[in-house]
Amino acid sequence: MTVDYELRGHVAVLTINRPDARNAVNTDVAQGIEAGLDRLEEDPEAWVGIITGARTEKGYIFCAGADLKQMSVDPGGMTTQKGGFAGIVQRERTKPLIAAVDGPALAGGTEIVLACDLVVASDTAVFGIPEVKRNLVAGAGGLFRLPRKIPRNIAMELALTGRLDFPAERAHHFGLVNRLCAEGAALDTALELAGEVTQAAPLAVRESRSIILAATDQPDEVGWKLSGEGMVKMFQTEDFGEGLTAFIEKRDPVWKGK
Q1: Strand locations in the chain, DSSP E?
Q2: What residues does each domain of the chain span?
Q3: Residues 6 or more apart from 169 whose CB is under 8 A from it?
Q4: Among 55, 159, 52, which Cα is nearest to 107's?
Q5: Is 3-198 a domain of CATH 3.90.226.10?
Q6: In this structure, what is the dihedral angle of CA atoms 130, 136, 141, 146, given to the nearest 10 degrees?
Q7: pLDDT digits (tens, 9 = 90+) for 166-194
Q8: Within its chain, how far is the Cα of 107 from the centroid?
């Protein structure tokens, strides 16, 4: 399999496992990521997802982007109907997804990261959208998602020069990366972050994620409307009563996701 799926408690870990090709995206990887996201969405025990890359013989690599050999003959094969490129960049999801980046995440690899909700990166991680160096454009979301995450002029420079030297520390400085860690520790750090998320009520987490994505950059009235609707939804769940009862009884809540 080119994408492994493992459930650790309430956290689903998807690992791009194509180390001989620097975890580059081909048809199998795209379909594997889509299948993994399907499992994440469908499994009531999976509350948070993590996507990472298998270690290669030459060290850690998150994803080298599209498989250029396949692109030369079958570029459409690296997309899926539900998810677009790599089965993820256009995918509609309800559950939060964390990118655990050890080593380079370049071109389509950066665009996979940009499709995630949170990012953990080691000090060997590096990002870039070098498509212009191959007479291509970053067509999997990089040209509009990157300037939403970091200052526009910095994103513009990366897009126009195709530079491959945007390291994790600088990405963290500008807000693209949530947490930095040592080489080899990205997955463990992402699991720690996911563990913090799973301590919160899963339905409220999903609703909060949805509101942030829908309301950011919109007028305040949109935010007020969506926040109010989200609160009403939570009032109607079993976990709403559990949250209040646990607080009164001074104990940790036991969430059911219902």
Answers
A1: 3-8, 11-16, 48-53, 79-80, 84-85, 97-101, 104-106, 118-122, 126-128, 166-167, 179-181
A2: 3-198, 202-248
A3: 123, 180
A4: 159
A5: yes
A6: 30
A7: 999 999 999 999 999 999 999 999 999 99
A8: 15
| C-alpha to C-alpha distance for 117 and 91, rounded to whole angstroms | 12
pLDDT tens, residue by residue, 65-117? 999 888 888 878 899 999 999 999 999 999 999 999 999 999 999 999 999 99
The answer to whether residues 215 and 158 touch, using CB atoms and an 8 Å cutoff, is no
* Bridge partners, 128 (sequence order): 106
Integer Cα distance of 220 and 177 in angstroms: 27
Tokens standing for 110? 């950066």
User: Residue 106 is which amino acid?
Assistant: L
Residues forming the active site: 111, 131
* Residue 54, both tokens: 């298998």
Report the SS3 class of residue 128.
strand
CB atoms under 10 Å from CB of 165, counted, come to 10
pTM, two decimal places = 0.95
